[in-house]
Design goal:
Blueprint: E1 4-8, H1 12-24, E2 28-32, H2 35-44, E3 49-53, H3 61-71, E4 77-80
Parallel strand pairs: 1-2, 1-3, 3-4
């Protein structure tokens, strides 16, 4: 079964590049356009990892990381600087 990855970035070009690359390696990729959408997705589904932009509108990456640790403390997260 393919691993599910959440890509969170407010830049559509970066989201697309990351999604395309991860797709090519066989991951199931879902995307979120901001921190709030990421938090909503994390409540609905389980992910094997997350690529997370730090600087985003509404809810920033550090806030998403803190909230995600409450429910999935061992999920790998890669923070992407601006």
């Amino acid at each position: 079964m393919a691993k599910r990855i959440l890509v969170v970035d407010d830049d559509p070009d970066i989201r697309q590049v990351l999604q395309d690359r991860l797709d090519s390696y066989g991951y199931v990729v879902e995307t979120a356009i901001d921190g709030q959408e990421a938090l909503d997705a994390l409540k609905l589904r389980s992910y094997d990892g997350m690529l997370l932009d730090i600087m985003m509108p509404k809810v920033n990456g550090l806030e998403v990381l803190q909230e995600s640790r409450k429910h999935r403390p061992l999920m790998p997260v890669v923070m992407i600087p601006a």
